[in-house]
Specification:
There is one protein chain. The protein has 2 domains: about 30 residues; about 140 residues, Hypothetical Protein Tm1070, Chain: A. It is about 15% helix and about 45% strand. The protein has 2 helices and 13 strands; from the N terminus they run H-H-E-E-E-E-E-E-E-E-E-E-E-E-E. The strands form 3 sheets. Strands 1, 2, 6, 7, 8, 10 and 13 form a 7-stranded antiparallel sheet that branches. A hairpin with a 5-residue loop joins strand 6 and strand 7. It is flat. The protein starts with a helix and ends with a strand.
């Protein structure tokens, strides 16, 4: 019986030290990047599209107006069509006063089927203020499901973590 226990312990020790197993576990935990994010120089006549306003809450009031809680904000554009790509022509970031802070793309790009692209505003970036927002413009030369365009905000105070999302709102149909 003792020999059986020793053999079981040695076997499990050898198996847990297997570098190939550790490599496979590490490989599964890596986050894939967006490979369906391709620059597009093609000018298509767009059949449908939108300009979408997305509120960003990277700075929130905490207790009183002068005390702000800063969060990381992630803009996520998700093409939910299993059949067709979409073209993203604008991803602009504005501050509380409506002043353009940054254009995240300098040429339009194609977002492949069922793929997504994220744009990050780090917690340390305070330029947007409490009323920051994105305007995203997308189009398609084929009938397509409207993509999901939303923001996810994440942050923590001490040992408490916070996260929430805000959906984009169409401001213009094309």
């Amino acid at each position: 019986m003792n020999k059986f226990i020793i053999i079981a312990l040695v076997s499990s020790l050898l198996y847990s030290c297997n570098p190939e197993k550790k490599y496979r576990e590490r490989e599964r935990r890596e986050v894939p990047s967006s490979s369906e994010f391709k620059p597009s120089n093609h000018i298509h006549k767009m059949l449908m599209g939108q300009s979408v306003y997305v509120p960003i809450y990277s700075s929130l009031y905490n207790e009183y107006e002068e005390k702000l809680f800063h969060m990381t904000a992630i803009l996520s554009i998700r093409n939910i069509s299993p059949k067709n790509s979409i073209t993203i022509s604008k991803v602009d970031y504005f501050d509380t006063n409506g002043k353009l802070i940054k254009s995240f793309i300098n040429q339009q790009f194609t977002l492949g089927t069922m793929s997504s692209k994220d744009f990050v505003i780090p917690e340390s970036d305070l330029t947007g203020g409490t009323g920051a927002n994105f305007i995203v413009t997308w189009g398609s030369d084929k009938p397509i499901s409207i993509p999901i365009i939303e923001a996810v905000m994440i942050g923590s105070i001490g040992t408490k973590g916070f996260s929430f999302s805000s959906r984009g709102k169409e401001i213009e149909a094309h």
